[in-house]
Amino acid sequence: MTTKVLQESASQTAGPYLHIGMMPAAAGLERRRNQPGNVLARAGALGERIRIEGVVYDGEGCVVRDAMIEIWQANAEGKYDHPDDPQQKAVDPNFNGFGRAVSDFGTGLWWFDTIKPGVVPGRHKRPMAPHVNVLVFARGVNVGLQTRLYFSDEAAANAADPVINLIELAPRRETLVAQRSERDGQVVYRFDIHLQGDRETVFFDI
Amino acid sequence: MSNGVFYERDRGIHPPAYFPDYKTTVLRSPRRALLSLQQSLSELTGPVFGNGDLDPLDNDLLLNYRVDNDPIGERIVVHGRVLDENGRPVPGALLEFWQANAGGRYRHVKDHYVAALDPNFGGCGRALTDANGWYHFRTIRPGPYPWRNRINDWRPAHIHFSVFGRSFVSRLITQMYFEGDPLLPLCPIYQAIPDAGARARLVAPLDLEAAIPLDSLAYRFDIVLRGRKQTYFENRPEGF
Ligand SMILES: [Fe+3]
């Protein structure tokens, strides 16, 4: 029998110096071994190579230059590299699915080199459109903000996605869809995050 | 290990997104209601870390950026347990921590506070909890520092903590404070936590039992991550 006997520790902002503990190289400290970073797809990783990039904006449209973005995604087959994923699909030894990036101090741009994830079953075995789970931390953000990134070239899958369909207003759904383009032969998805305002990103309580 | 979903997050013990005394929240707080999502495989999984990911000095801030001398400041040990809401230990949790030096200065390209840098102190480390949820590291006690908010705001001494449990929904970033700090009642970041008990749980008490005589004082800081409900069939997302 399990019962809730304790309360979760309260969240606090990661502050402006979050780099020191989580991306030391960005703070000006020498890089550690095995530091999680923004290149997820090692040589040999299966799947379509993509870049995901964007900028975080505040409620007045100003660029946030001290944000950290974390992503967690399935591999090309739609399998999470985690012991609690019971699917009979193979883990990709060259792809773990966790990434971390920080906003550029000048431009605010953050980016990941990764692969496009496959389809993962959702509740009641309804397939979810390919997506990347996203967490946003920054100075002034008291509790990390959770959202999802979907792909603009998956319109049919997105239209059937059980999470996107929870969003009543169609324009709000668009805040979760990264726009595909090609640049110098590379596939780039643009995913800007708006913390507040007319184009406020849909954030989740999970 | 249960595959059940996690207890709902109790937003009443967390600081609200919008807290005007902490001015940066004014433009960085979502104003629309968060969309409630039932947990799927995407939320119930998350990155898993192991001892192979860490270096031997990661939990020793007295040594991990030492050049030619010990860092300046009060030597302390910080230790505690990571538990879930069911009171069970969370083994294999990755903790990352970062802090200012004894003078309240961060080793960061963007920190221009007048207090001196310490060439022997980096201020960052990592630890992984053991089978019983315990972690420990040694460091120096950080100093308080002023920050640009209201004209005379000072942060109480604190250590930032980033914690990964077993899933992406149990991800937590918080701060540890020190027992008896007179700046705690004045700090809008700390006071944004609406619940007195929740605030108190972020304050690490002095733990003299764990002190190293003639060497270091010790502080005890336990962290609670979200816990999973009992695995009744109806709590288990189908597809599992
Ligand atoms: Fe700080």
Automatic annotation (TrEMBL), chain A:
Pfam families, per database record: Dioxygenase_C (PF00775)
Record domain Intradiol ring-cleavage dioxygenases: where: 52-80
InterPro entries per record: Intradiol_dOase_C (IPR000627), Intradiol_dOase_core (IPR015889), Intradiol_RC_Dioxygenase (IPR050770), Protocat_dOase_a (IPR012786)
Molecular function via GO: ferric iron binding; protocatechuate 3,4-dioxygenase activity
Keyword Oxidoreductase set for record: yes
Keywords for the protein's UniProt record, in alphabetical order: Dioxygenase, Oxidoreductase
Annotated family: Belongs to the intradiol ring-cleavage dioxygenase family.
Protein name (record): Protocatechuate 3,4-dioxygenase alpha subunit
Species in which this protein is naturally found: Plasticicumulans lactativorans
Automatic annotation (TrEMBL), chain B:
Domain Intradiol ring-cleavage dioxygenases: 78-106
Record keyword Oxidoreductase present: yes
Annotated GO MF terms: ferric iron binding; protocatechuate 3,4-dioxygenase activity
InterPro entries hit by this protein: Intradiol_dOase_C, Intradiol_dOase_core, Intradiol_RC_Dioxygenase, PCDO_beta_N, Protocat_dOase_b
GO biological process, one term: 3,4-dihydroxybenzoate catabolic process
Keyword Oxidoreductase: yes
Short name of any one Pfam family annotated for the protein: Dioxygenase_C
Keyword terms: Dioxygenase, Oxidoreductase
Protein family according to the UniProt entry: Belongs to the intradiol ring-cleavage dioxygenase family.
NCBIfam families associated with the record: protocat_beta (TIGR02422)
The name this protein goes by in its record: Protocatechuate 3,4-dioxygenase beta subunit
Source species of the chain: Plasticicumulans lactativorans
